[in-house]
Amino acid sequence: MKPTPATLTERFSRMDLFSSVPPDILEQLAEESDIAEYPAGAVIFQKNEPGHALYVILKGSVKVHDEDYVAARLNEGGCFGELALLDEGPRSMSVTADEPTTLAVVGRDVFFNVLGSEPGVVRKIGGMLTRRLRDQTDRVVEGLRRREEELTRLVEERTAELNRQKERAEQSERLEQQFLANMSHEIRTPMNAVVGMTNILLQKNPRPDQLKYLESIRHSSQNLLVILNDILDISKIQAGRMELENTDFELTKILESVGSTLRFRAEEKELIFKTECDAAIPPVLIGDPVRLQQILLNLAGNAVKFTESGSVSIAAHVLDKTKTDCRLRLEVRDTGIGMSPEQVARAFESFRQASADTTRKYGGTGLGLSISKQLAELFGGSLEVESEPGKGSVFSFSISLKISEKTALSKENAAAPAQREALKGLRILIAEDNEYNRVVAVETLELMLSDVKIETAENGKEAVEKVKSGAFDLVLMDVNMPEMDGWEATRLIRTLPAPLGEIPVIAFTASVTKAEIEKCEACGMNAVVPKPFKESELLEALYSVVGEMGANFPRVEKHSESSPLDFLTELTGGNPTRIRKYLGLYLESAQASFPKIESALAANDRDALRRAVHTLKPQLKMVGLPETAELATSIETRLLDGAEPATLATETRRLEEEIRRSCDVFGNYLSQLS
Amino acid sequence: MAIQKIFVVDDDNMYATMLADHLEEQGFSSKTFATGEDCLAHLDDEPDLIILDYYLDSEIPGAKNGLEILKDIKKADEDIKVIMLSSQEHYGVALQTIAKGAIYYVIKDLHSFKEIDSILSGLK
């Protein structure tokens, strides 16, 4: 039923929007408004349509919406369209009837004509709009604030997560480094023992059947060492831990070394083995000779392995040379079984030789080529291969090396016998917790040096105590020991008063990394020898630390409060006459010994020298010169062992020197007494 | 039989003199000889005990060594007690001398005098 103007007026008067409007104006408004009816679902107006009326719901309900988003639902008494009414702009939302709805439509002109002088209405509309705007703004700001909080939280979480990951990665890297170092140590330590003990047994005249087994053990353990080193190398390279050295080396020596290692095997197979070194190659280069040799040995070893007839050759050519740098091409050529293109493509992959058959027939870990390839890359080169099945292969790589200013390197091998000589009679303390390693070290030193006196300590604490006794010239210190490690022990030793605190200490370690070496230097160690040690390295270290003087190295003696004449004083009850008498007899004997010693040396007469020295021994002890007595004893013992007097000239002269000095001292003493 | 007269046979003049003096101080009478041969020539002095150095040709080449002199002494008079002296620490040699009749083997170091003292007091 269509509402009457009266009903409409009454309806208007109940609306808050028109609360300030007097009833007669409302009547007029009601009369000039239209009435519209809509069925449910009818679109009253669309978003963006221009607005031109205010709508009042007389009956029913509508939804104010934008597509699926419903902004509001309005019921009886509600009104809409006021925003568009005021600013003439397009509608911001659509309005659709939810149910059959009757609307009063107040056109714009009507609205303003009738209500134009009613400021309260516009104010009301303004208030409504402002409130709506404020609400919206509040909601948006709230939304933004929450979003910002969330983002901040997300960023914090992400940063924490990344930090955790970074720490995990760093720790993983540390563990890996530690693992590699430990594994290296754990593997090498027992291997050291096996190889060392086997060598010692081989030198102790084994029975023929024992010899057979020992050779077999040695062969197997050497193979095992090669395999282990390969595995450790490849782990190290893959972990990015392999660093190349920068030392002076002679390329010709490397080629010679590889050649001499392989020549025998090559000759057994009746292969021709050649090495060629370009004359233009500088005599001394700077790089890592050990790793370079490793590559060449691997390539040439393979070449010999896979060649049944013909030749294997290693060649080095200069590609480019400046004053400071030199670019070389190194190649290993063979006339062996060769490789098919597929085999070439897979050649450098780890764990793969050309086929499983090859591994079975020719042996090996299959890692060698992979290691060589990666080493070549570390050198800045790239390992390439050209090959034809049945014809042979050429493996090559080019690298740049710096040129050293030296023109030659000193021949180290020739010096060994002289070094050994200088180290005779050394008193060595070995600090090592592992029983096997102790035995190996002691036996090796005893075989290597003559007349060496060795004692052992099982940990750093024991070592320090023994050093305090002053009975040693040198300490070989394992770095990893229980209770007190080698570094701590050395630090403690260095705090002792001179000369005890200055005793040379050589470190023994299974893991020789740059960090380890720095640690050794920092605590006062004089040299480092890697385990398993090579005799030549040990010899070098001993000689470098103890020097030319060898056993004549200023002996580390316990600081003695006693006087040389203590014994004579005690024996004679302090009787000066008797002391004088005996000192006199000593001086007589001492003076008499010089010509005897000299003529014995001149005549190289072993018996004469021995006689001359023999008598001095107890006399030196009695006048309080035990070290000199020791020297005399050691000379006599060596003579008894068959040494030629000529070889003992240095020590004998030193003995004379010490006796001469004692004669001066006692001579002065005697003249003061009388 | 109490020990009274002691011979000291050593070509090391300093040691021999010191030992002889020391023995005199302890109340013994002692004589020193530089060679074994000299000592043997004076056996009719009837020494009770002879302290004999092992390495007698250390000063005089060609002299008989201590072990041979020990044999000669024992041949001449079984009852003479002999203490061997040496600066050699070879116990193989020590056993030899004991086997040949020496009663003790003393090493010529700083303890030798005290050791000889206790041997002598043990023989009383």
Explain how this protein is built:
The complex is a heterodimer of chains A (674) and B (124). Chain A is α+β, with helices and mostly antiparallel strands and 674 residues long. Chain A has four domains: 113 residues, Jelly Rolls (Sandwich), CATH 2.60.120.10; 153 residues, 2-Layer Sandwich (Heat Shock Protein 90), CATH 3.30.565; 137 residues, Rossmann fold, CATH 3.40.50; 110 residues, Four Helix Bundle (Hemerythrin (Met), subunit A) (Up-down Bundle). Chain A is 53% helix and 17% strand. In chain A, the strands form four sheets. In chain A, strands 9, 10, 11, 12, 13, 14 and 15 form a seven-stranded mixed beta sheet that branches. A five-stranded parallel beta sheet of chain A has the order 17-16-18-19-20, sandwiched between helices. Chain A has a four-stranded antiparallel beta sheet with strand order 1-8-3-6. In chain A, helix 7 runs parallel beside helix 8 and helix 19 packs antiparallel against helix 22. About 2% of the residues of chain A have low confidence. Chain B is of the alpha/beta class and 124 residues long. Chain B has one domain: Response regulator (Rossmann fold). Chain B has a five-stranded parallel beta sheet, with helices on both faces. The longest helix of chain B has 13 residues. Classes of the chains: A alpha+beta (674), B alpha/beta (124). Chains A and B meet through helix 19 and helix 20 of A and helix 1 of B.
Helix share of residues of chain A?
40-55%
Q: Kindly state the mean pLDDT of chain A as a whole number?
A: 84
Largest sheet of chain A: 7 strands, mixed
Taking all Cα atoms into account, the compactness measure Rg of chain B is 13 Å
How far the N terminus sits from the C terminus of chain B, by CA atoms, comes to 8 Å
Can you list the strand order of the major beta sheet of chain B? Answer: 2-1-3-4-5
The top-level CATH class of the largest domain in chain A is Alpha Beta
Contiguous runs where pLDDT drops below 50 for at least 5 residues of chain A: 548-561
Q: In what range is the share of β-strand residues of chain A? A: 15-25%
- The CATH topology of chain B corresponds to Rossmann fold
Mean pLDDT of chain B: 89
User: What count of structural domains of chain A?
Assistant: 4
Shape of chain A from CA axes? Answer: elongated
In whole angstroms, how far apart are the ends of chain A? 160 Å
β-strand amount of chain B: 15-25%
Gyration radius over CA of chain A: 50 Å
Largest interface: A-B, 19 and 20 residues
The CATH architecture designation of the largest domain in chain A is 2-Layer Sandwich
Count of DSSP-assigned helices of chain A: 22
